[in-house]
Amino acid sequence: MLVRRLPDAAVTDFHRLRSHILMDAGELGSRHMTVTWIEVPPGTSQELHSHEEAEQVYVVVRGTGTLSAAGDTEQLEPGDLALIPPASDHTLANQGEDGLALISAQSPAVSVEETFGRQTAAVAGYDEDDSY
After folding, report:
1. Of 34, 59, 114, 128, which one is least surrounded by beta carbons within 10 A?
2. Closest residue by Cα to residue 117 from 109, 106, 125, 128
3. How far is Cα 86 from Cα 102, in angstroms, rounded to an integer?
């Protein structure tokens, strides 16, 4: 058994969201899953994005938030699980007064570098597949 404790996880900040990388693609012997602890401060939302081949699960640990995916919007609270199918545009928002914390798991594994690289490209207004 392998254990990674939250304080030992690598941290990535992106657009005011903080992601603790509990298990990146290929880490700890896993071949099929990526797991992150995501903290969403009050008044913050995630960029609209999708994971082309990976399904994603969010499990709310604390706080409340709004998840919009594939044209549907749901309020989430502690203990709720939400499944995002592959290639579904989705965004998460915390419009409350308290912090929102979630566990995110993706399968097949998607490296955090790849995820943030795609989101950075979208924010910058270009696609890495474009020819110049």
Report:
1. 128
2. 128
3. 19
